[in-house]
Design brief:
Length: 133
């Protein structure tokens, strides 16, 4: 993943044949890692790490918030499929973090942001707390 990210940052990505990769993984999957990343459209892990089909398990949810379904998926990845690495990938300017700071409320999003708020509260900061500062 580190080497893939270096390729991405340098603009020299692997030439991939996704159809061949899909066919090669049709009989089973054995990704080396499981990743928890944000749903943010600007941070697609497979692209940022120059990965192909079958390389990783990827769970995406706003703010990288874990829940029992994601943890169960990670347990599957590690215990049953043999993944050896669990990576949580954050990014800058996360809308979920900004929403938690600003106390945004909207349907199911309200509950998701409530899981982020303890981390916001635990972060040392003097002054007014808004997502703008």
């Amino acid at each position: 993943m580190k080497k893939g990210n270096e390729r991405f940052r340098s603009g020299v990505r692997k030439n991939r044949n996704y159809l061949n990769e899909q066919k090669a993984s049709a009989s089973g999957q054995h990704p080396a890692a499981v990743l928890l990343s944000c749903i943010d459209s600007r941070a697609p892990a497979e692209v940022i790490m120059d990965l192909g089909i079958g390389d990783i398990f990827n769970s995406r949810v706003a703010g990288n918030v874990e829940n029992s379904d994601i943890l169960g998926s990670m347990e599957f990845a590690c215990k049953l499929a043999g993944s050896k690495v669990v990576l949580v990938m954050g990014h800058t300017a996360c809308g979920a973090i900004k929403g938690a700071i600003d106390n945004a409320e909207l349907g199911n999003l309200t509950g998701l942001l409530a899981k982020i708020k303890p981390a916001v509260a635990a972060t040392g900061y003097s002054g007014e707390r808004t997502s703008k500062n």
